[in-house]
Amino acid sequence: MNTYHDLVRQIRNTSIRMDSTDDLDVLVEAVGDAQIVLLGEASHGTSEFYTLRMELSKKLIERKGFQFIGVEGDWPSCCSLNSYVKHMADAPESVRDALGAFNRWPTWMWANREVMELGEWLRGYNANRSEQERVGFYGLDMYSLWESLDEVVKFLEETNAPELFKAKRAFACFEPYSREGQTYGMAAAFLNETCEEEVVKLLTSLQERRFQGRPQSEAELSAELNAMVAVNAERYYRTMMRGGSDSWNVRDTHMVDALEHLMRFHGRGAKAILWEHNTHIGDARATDMAMDGMLNVGQLVRERYGRETCYAIGFGTHRGTVIAAREWGAAIQEMPVPEAIHNSWEDLMHRAGAYNQILMLGPRNPHFQTTVGHRAIGVVYHPEYERGNYVPSKMSERYDAFVFVDETKALQPLAVEKVLV
Fold first, then answer.
1. What's the chain's average pLDDT?
2. Is Transmembrane among this UniProt entry's keywords (predicted)?
3. At the fourth CATH level, which superfamily is domain 3-143+244-420?
4. Cβ within 8 Å of residue 383, ≥6 positions away
5. What is the pLDDT of residues 82-92, one digit of tens each?
6. What are the start-end ranges of the E strands in 129-284?
């Protein structure tokens, strides 16, 4: 029997047609009592991935009591949107103002109309709830080395804390590198100039003196997380220049450590929704990433919390358009997403039915154990070199379910960057 023909037949027989957001209810039911739901995306620039994750998140919040959304974004920038949706005293006046904090390239990942709609919904949902019951929006990533150090110093100044001197000394150590992570990384890798000792001392001091156990306020939580960002961002930039898997592993481990802090802050039985790229939320052990010594959020969350406590949902498309750039830091463009290559996962889904679908996977499913190529589009994208964008994956081990949108369109960035078309 032809393996790919058999996979197409199995997909056709078991998938659920998705004609409206009401069809997402099957996923809400499948989540069951899971405390952590991981929602992926095959690109950072596809409208449907954002809108479907938003609709699914709304259902999980309303029906299952999920308490916060953690995203692949920087902690300080996400704090601006978090303060807006939680009606904090220092909140920006509008959701557009809140999204203005996303000023680091690629800004469109979070400064877009789809996230603006989510922000307005969260603010409305939180309007009549107590401070403790309000649903938050947090950044799990760690690129914001300098911004996080700024925030730590600001917090310590406002609280007249004894750690202020150490924080300022750590900040001074980074000043010669012009707030450029790569500049610092090159100096650390090739000149053996590092600020590791300063930031580690800072975090240790904060943890020992102020944050024993659980932070008591959002301000304390933010200071602790910003200090942790400083430590891990320093490690990330230091290891990035050496190549290999170390910098990737530092980053994904940090995101899961940040999640743990948030779970502890929200108390016993806390429930979290994560929004990240498929390459982060789909278990790395089910891909060729493991052969390269790489781990990821999906793997670490399952290992730390237990597979039965987590539910991972991948997202993909057959063809469409996407927002991306041709090199890091370049102007963003609306690009075509070519039809999926033959016998890739996306091609098989399309052949099973040229419509939107939901497919239940999971370890107990006897099908979908075959390793197939699964498309991953980054913020830097070259559609003409599509074949290199496919990750060999055992789908039933990588995700618990998969949402397939046959034809997608580019998301809508706010007027922060000019979009080339």
1. 91
2. no
3. EreA-like (biosynthetic domain) (3.40.1660.10)
4. 335, 336, 337, 338
5. 999 999 998 99
6. 136-141, 272-275
